[in-house]
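Let us practice reading a record.
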Amino acid sequence: MKTCTTCQEAKPLDQFPAKGSKCKSCHAKRRRQRPSQIALKKDRIKRAKDARLALLDKCVVCGEEEQCCLDLHHLDPDVKERKFSTIRTIGALEDELSKGAVVVCANCHRRLHAGVLLLLPWCPTAKIITPTPAEVR
C-alpha cells in the first residue's frame, strides 16, 4: 500500500506509476487539466506581447509600423540587461527604452549591426548617417 500525495488515499502499488507519488487516477486528472492551463499561459504571454508592442510605435530609421517587424536596438550594448523577447511587462520595456534603446525594424537593425547604417547616440531619432562604400570597408 502507498498513499497518494494528491488525494491522500492509501492504494495498492499497482495503482501508482513505477516512479511517482501520485496515483494513476490523480495523474490522469492532472493530465486532463493541462490543455486549459497551457492555453491560459499562452494567453498571458500573448497579452504581455501585445502590451509590449503597444509601446513600440515605428522604426526610427524608415518608419516601418508593422509591429511583428520591430526590434529594440541598444545604442550602448553595455547597458543592455535583457533581450527584447524576454521582456514581459510594460515597466521592463520602459526601463530598456530609458537606457537608450531605440525602436527599429528588423531590416534596419541588421543594417545597423552590419555598419551600413549609423545612428548618432545623442539624437537617435533624427540623425541617420549612411556611410559611403569606402567607409564601410
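A brief commentary: The mean pLDDT is 77.
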